[in-house]
Design a protein that fits this description.
The protein is α+β, with helices and mostly antiparallel strands and about 190 residues long. The chain has three helices and ten strands. Helix content is about 30%, strand content about 30%. The longest helix has 22 residues.
Length: about 190
């Protein structure tokens, strides 16, 4: 049986982390002064957003429940929720509706294709993401967005802008993996 050297494993982990950094940079959602995916709307009446995304652990299957909860500027729930489902076995979803706030939490709960064993998961999994729709209506929900969620909320509620909090929380999550890889923490049992 061929064994893999610790250096090779470390290099692989660092390569995966680098790839994840690149992906997150391109998919970062932040609220700034930019345009956005909304369509018109009277002041105070809300904005019509067409949200598109995918839920990934391995891809979540057709019919996975997606709940989109509107949040206020402090990322606290407003009480407005919207429901949809994944439209294919790649975890894709879409929802078009009028939102009075650009901040949303997207929660997906369901079964996914387990890439390790090559079969459907034996139990459902819930993943989350917080997004600001004013700059991007393409929102992916995955393990990293789930890991950053509580930190993102804490940073916003501590006074950071959404953009600052998003960048910091993403960086902190990725640094955890980089630190573990460098110290051999991911390799120890």
């Amino acid at each position: 049986m061929k064994t893999i050297s610790e250096d090779a494993v470390k290099k692989s982990i660092l390569l995966v982390n680098f790839f994840l950094c690149i992906v997150l940079i391109f998919t970062v959602t932040s609220c700034g002064s930019g345009g956005g995916g909304g369509v018109g709307g009277r002041k105070g009446a809300g904005t019509n957003y067409n949200i598109n995304g995918a839920v990934q652990k391995g891809p979540f299957v057709l019919g996975t429940t997606i709940t989109i909860q509107e949040l206020d500027q402090n990322l606290a729930p407003t009480g407005k929720t919207y429901s949809t489902e994944t439209v294919d076995d790649l975890g894709k979803f879409t929802l078009q509706s009028i939102f009075t706030s650009p901040y949303v939490e997207i929660t997906a709960s369901g079964y996914y294709f387990d890439e390790v064993v090559g079969l459907l998961s034996t139990a459902p999994l819930t993943l989350r993401a917080i997004a600001c729709l004013s700059d991007s209506t393409n929102v992916n929900v995955n393990i990293l967005t789930t890991l950053e969620k509580k930190r993102l909320v804490y940073l916003v509620q501590s006074g950071k802008t959404f953009s600052e909090a998003k960048i910091q929380s993403e960086g902190e999550v990725l640094n955890i993996f980089a630190s573990s890889a460098e110290s051999g923490g991911l390799l120890k049992g």
